[in-house]
Amino acid sequence: MFGGLNGQIANNELWQLDLSPSPHWTQLAPAGTPPSPRYGHSLVYDTTRDRVLVFGGANGAGVPNGETWSLNLSGPMAWTQVHPTGTAPGPLYAHNAIYDPLRDRMVVYGGYNGNESGSAYALNLASASPNWLVLHPNGALPLPRLAAVGIYYPIADRFVVSGGNAYSVPPGGDTWALSWGDTPTPTLLSFVDCEAASDHVRLRWQASDAADLHATVERSRDGSGWTRVGVPLIEGTSLLVYEDRDVTAGRSWYRLAYEDGSLQRYTDPVSVLVPAGVPLALVGVRPNPATAGSAIEFHLPDTRPTQLELVDVRGRLIWSLEIGSLGAGAHSVPLFQRGALGAGVYWVRLIRPEIALTRKTVLMAP
Questions:
Q1: Do residues 216 and 228 make contact, with C-beta atoms less than 8 angstroms apart?
Q2: How far is 198 from 272, CA to CA, in rounded Å?
Q3: What is the distance, to the nearest Å, from the Cα of residue 340 to the centroid of all Cα atoms in its chain?
Q4: Among candidate residues 72, 37, 67, the one with its CA nearest the CA of residue 55
Q5: For 165-189, b where at least 16 C-beta lie within 10 A, e where not — what string?
Q6: How far apart are CA 149 and CA 42, in angstroms?
């Protein structure tokens, strides 16, 4: 951990958190001249060279800088300032940065330089002299922002940025992904919400180019193995909606799969807890023996067609009622559905194509 702000005082301290055998902090003192005290900088780990790169940041007065520093972790730990060529981002803080291991570069997005920034830059590290390059993504662009959360998602090989703030607009809760290709293309990929019941799961995603994604939905029962389960429907111009009717109680994971040129991309998995279903049950008439105020109580596990019938002791149908539309849960309906009933023995039947449940009730004379 390097630098930070305590009140209005920035520092340039370097600390290490050892996790074994018991977590404890240790302050480090590398060789070389360290970067000046700062906060709001970015810090990435260059896996190729086993070093940390620090970019930008601001002093305690909020004045940003555009410096790049390297902290060597192999051999004696030492600070070195890097002087890249090219078109640099300039003084910047509260930005995001990642190390892109496949292209050996650091990518910087957003931040504040007197105004909110929506620009993206890449620092090429492969050459003997590192150089900055301005990126010009295609498609819809995120609003300029600072203090967002940014990560490199290695499975899908993309830079994901979420949330953040701007002085001119309220904090955002949107999520954007910058995908690479010959030209990087940002795609707004925001999971909106889900509805989970014992008989279905309904999920919604928002995508800036929903009609062009050609997405499919994949499901995992264990969080590792994935199976294609269907194609989402498009609602409006930006919503992808999928309803899964083949569900089981417990936790499942869902994600969208889509093609980006020749590459297969995936959204981050969404964890959904499917509640246990209510078993089909005919509780019976309560109270029993029955009176004019009695009701028939029953449980439904889902919305499939279900008939509730009342027949007399001779087997004659008194009334029939479709109840499947009531949905999963515990329900009750009045015993008296078709006017007065004479005293005697009656049978209540709950009928589905695969099963019929029966309960007896006695109606007492008033």
A1: yes
A2: 12
A3: 56
A4: 67
A5: bbeeeeebebbbbbbbeeebbbbbb
A6: 11
Number of domains in the chain: 2
One pLDDT digit (tens) per residue for the chain, 366 residues: 999 999 889 999 999 999 888 899 999 999 999 999 999 999 999 988 999 999 999 999 999 999 999 999 988 999 999 999 999 999 999 999 999 988 899 999 999 999 899 999 999 998 778 999 999 888 788 889 999 999 998 877 899 999 888 766 566 678 899 988 645 556 566 788 899 888 889 999 888 777 777 889 999 988 778 899 999 999 887 889 999 999 888 899 999 888 766 667 788 788 899 888 778 899 999 999 998 889 999 999 888 899 999 999 889 999 999 999 998 888 999 998 877 788 899 999 999 988 999 999 999 876
Give the range of the structural domain holding residue 310, as residue numbers without chain letter: 281-363
Alpha carbon distance 250, 198 (integer Å): 9
Among the three residues 136, 159, 174, which one is the final residue of a domain in this structure? 136
Q: Which residue has the tokens 């019929």?
A: 356
Buried b (16+ CB within 10 A) or exposed e, 274-308: beebbebebbbbeebebeeebbbbbbbbbeeebeb
CATH of residue 290: 2.60.40.3080
Whole-angstrom distance, CA of residue 177 vs CA of residue 182: 16
Spell out the SS3 assignment of 20-54: CCCCEEEEECCECCCCCCEECCEEEEECCCCEEEE
Q: Judge whether 290 lies within some domain.
A: yes
Show the tokens assigned to 71.
């902290």
Q: Which two tokens stand for residue 231?
A: 């194609």
pTM of the model: 0.54
Looking at residue 76, what DSSP letter applies?
S
What amino acid occupies position 317? L
Asked if 318 contacts 310 with a C-beta cutoff of 8 angstroms, the reply is: yes
Q: Is residue 211 part of a domain?
A: no
| 111, 136, 161 - which closes a domain | 136
Burial, 190: exposed, middle or buried (Cβ in 10 Å; 0-12, 13-18, 19+)?
middle
How would you list the strands of the sheet with 355-363, edge to edge? 317-322, 307-312, 344-352, 355-363
β-pairing, 78-82 vs 281-286, is unpaired
